[in-house]
Write a structure and sequence with these properties.
The protein is of the alpha+beta class. The chain has one domain: Dimeric alpha+beta barrel (Alpha-Beta Plaits, 2-Layer Sandwich). It is built from three helices and four strands; from the N terminus they run βαββαβα. A hairpin with a 5-residue loop joins strand 2 and strand 3. The model has no long low-confidence stretch (mean pLDDT 91).
Length: 104
């Protein structure tokens, strides 16, 4: 299954800059591992009307329980507000339509 995951990260007031840097480095390593395992497919940033930015990730897992387990393992998880949107196949998906057209 594929999921669109939106992350809003809020660093708690008073958190030492060194801890933020350490967690951000660890987060990059964790994301790299998810890519290597085929679970993290794409990542984008999106500005919000409030001027903050969010991160959008396209994930692929066997199901919601596995996705939740992987997200809980992220170093920044405690600082994240996460919104998950399950994605389903669509008959007009260009990837599917192109593959079908090539077989015809």
């Amino acid at each position: 299954m594929e999921f669109l995951v939106e992350f809003e990260i809020t660093v708690p007031d008073g958190t030492p800059a060194s801890e933020v840097r350490e967690r951000e480095r660890a987060e990059a390593v964790a994301a790299e591992k998810l890519v290597e395992e085929g679970h993290l497919l794409r990542v984008w940033t999106r500005d919000t009307p409030s001027g903050a930015s969010t991160v959008l990730g396209l994930y692929r897992t066997d199901g919601r329980a596995e996705l939740d387990r992987r997200l809980r393992g992220l170093p920044l998880y405690a600082w994240m507000k996460i919104t998950v949107t399950p994605l389903g196949a669509h008959p007009n998906d260009p990837a599917t339509v192109s593959a079908t057209a090539l077989r015809s």
